[in-house]
Specification:
The chain is mainly alpha-helical. The protein has three helices and no strands.
């Protein structure tokens, strides 16, 4: 089930299709903005741990950065889908 469908399930008849898309776009965009610094923080922590000789800790931080990057990629895809399916992107 797509995010917009999940959102409409919870909000029901209180919002129309266009408003649900605006809300969904805003939420996904906020998530994207939050993930960017979270990824950077993990990469920085990995660098610091590596410099301190903690290779296992550095590897753990990089694994977390990769996990966050996957979330970022998924959120970006969802955002693009929302924008492409929106009123301006419909054929």
């Amino acid at each position: 089930m797509e995010f917009i469908e999940n959102l409409r399930e919870f909000l029901g008849q209180t919002v129309g299709e266009a408003e649900a898309r605006v809300i969904a776009g805003a939420v996904v965009a906020a998530n994207i903005r939050g993930l960017k610094p979270a990824i950077a923080e993990r990469v920085w922590q990995a660098r610091q741990r590596s410099a301190a000789g903690d290779q296992d800790g550095a590897a753990g931080e990089l694994a977390e950065a990769r996990r966050l990057k996957a979330q970022y990629d998924n959120a970006l895809d969802e955002y693009r889908r929302l924008k492409a399916d929106g009123p301006a992107g419909r054929s």
